[in-house]
Amino acid sequence: MIFGFRDRNARVALFDGIEEGGIRASSSYSSHEIDEQENDRAIDGLEDRVLMLKRLSGDIHGEVESHNLMLDGMGNDMDASRGVLSGTMDKFKMVFETKSSRRMFTLVASFVVIFLVIYYLTR
């Protein structure tokens, strides 16, 4: 509900002074004559709003570009990690297939111990 109120206020601020049929005509003139000063003020107001929207859209574009670059970098890092993990798993498979069960247990136990030591040292 708050967003609707803000959106309405933003819309009113953006299109303030503009009616459906165009720019409001001065009440002292006939319907065919438009007050030049009011017209100039309305044009200046529109120009300011257009510039504000242009800056806003440029800021949004910059954010989108930076997020795309960040996501591309993360995707490349994930691909590299996947390649390293795949190579490691292939080596584990080769070791487990060629060695005896006792050596396999020793290898796994040593990796677990090394992992725990590194974990406690980094904490």
Automatic annotation (TrEMBL):
Membrane topology type: Single-pass type IV membrane protein; Single-pass membrane protein
Keyword Membrane: yes
Residues annotated as domain T-SNARE coiled-coil homology: 33-95
Transmembrane segments: 104-122
Keywords tagged on the record: Golgi apparatus, Membrane, Protein transport, Transmembrane, Transmembrane helix, Transport
Superkingdom classification of source: Eukaryota
Principal location listed in the UniProt entry: membrane
Keyword Membrane carried by entry: yes
Localization annotation: Endomembrane system; Golgi apparatus membrane
PANTHER family per UniProt: GOLGI SNARE BET1-RELATED
Protein known as: t-SNARE coiled-coil homology domain-containing protein
Upper taxonomic lineage: Eukaryota, Viridiplantae, Streptophyta, Embryophyta, Tracheophyta
